[in-house]
Amino acid sequence: MSTMNPSLNGISISVAMPIFNESDGIAETLNSIDEAFRNSGATVTMCIQNDVSTDNTLQVLAELSASLHLNIAVETNQQNLGHGPTAFNAYQRALSTGSSIVMQLDSDGQFDAIELPLLCTAITDGHDVVMGIRSNRVDPWFRKLVTFLLRNFLRARYLGRFPDPNSPVRAYSSTVLAPMLSKLPAEPFIPNIYLSILAVREKLNVEYVHVSHRERRGAESTGTMWQSANQWQKINRLLKFCRKSFIQLLSF
Predict the structure, then answer these.
(1) Contact, 30 vs 70, CB < 8 A?
(2) Model pTM?
(3) For 35-50, how does the pLDDT look when each residue is reduced to its tens digit (9 = 90+)?
(4) pLDDT tens, 129-173?
(5) The CATH number of the domain covering residues in 6-250
(6) Which neighbouring-strand residues pair with 19?
């Protein structure tokens, strides 16, 4: 059970969360977030952006909204856009709530929710951005390899620190996030990477904290984005996504 954190008492927090076909794990994910913040004194709104899920994700979310202390606000894309543009839409909605802190979390729940209030506390202590560094990452080797290559490319190109540039566990001061989002490409494939670059470019006050990493919640260990029965098909899909994203990144 979490204890009262005076630095979050009366603070409003909005969480940008993209979602696609997570009906088997989203209840556990949201319950863990609800428990983590329940006694923090903060008001937490989940801005969940549904990327046209084809399972019963929406039904599960409707049931959860009646039982949790979290405020759950769901919006569905007009068409399937993919993870990046969906996360960007969620960011914009989270910012529009007027909350003083905006977090970004993925719906697969690959985090320990009890650590999340600490990221928000760092924002109230005066940091502009707090980024989680995923310790002991449990993702497949090919995803960790992509992150390794990306980290070194960004370090060489932007001469800054990028310990985990695509981490989906992060928090922003809303006043800092608003101008950052306005600088992203339309329908960005990799919004978190762009935001990591902007934090370095603009010399923001960034705090990096180590966060736990765990297997995703639900039946499919590699998540719905790369879902396939064959590992090489997953790798092929990832490579195609990386190529498309890299082309967009080069013009940023």
Answers:
(1) yes
(2) 0.91
(3) 999 999 999 999 999 9
(4) 999 999 889 888 888 999 999 999 999 999 999 999 999 999 999
(5) 3.90.550.10
(6) 50
Q: pLDDT > 70: what percent of the chain? A: 92
**C-alpha span between 244 and 211 (Å, rounded):** 29
Task: Assess contact for 46 and 73: CB atoms under 8 A.
Answer: yes
Domain borders along the chain are: 6-250
Is 42:120 a contact under the CB 8 Å cutoff?
yes
The Cα 200–Cα 216 span in angstroms is 29
- Which residue in the block uniquely carries the two structure tokens 């092929």? 236
Token pair belonging to 224: 């719905």
- The C-alpha atoms of residue 187 and residue 80 are separated, in whole angstroms, by 12
In 140-218, alpha helices (H)? 141-158, 174-181, 191-201
Q: Are 222 and 140 in contact (CB under 8 A)?
A: yes
- First-to-last alpha carbon distance for the chain, in angstroms, is 43
Question: What is the rounded distance in angstroms from the CA atom of residue 233 to the CA atom of residue 142?
Answer: 12
Q: How many residues does the chain have?
A: 252
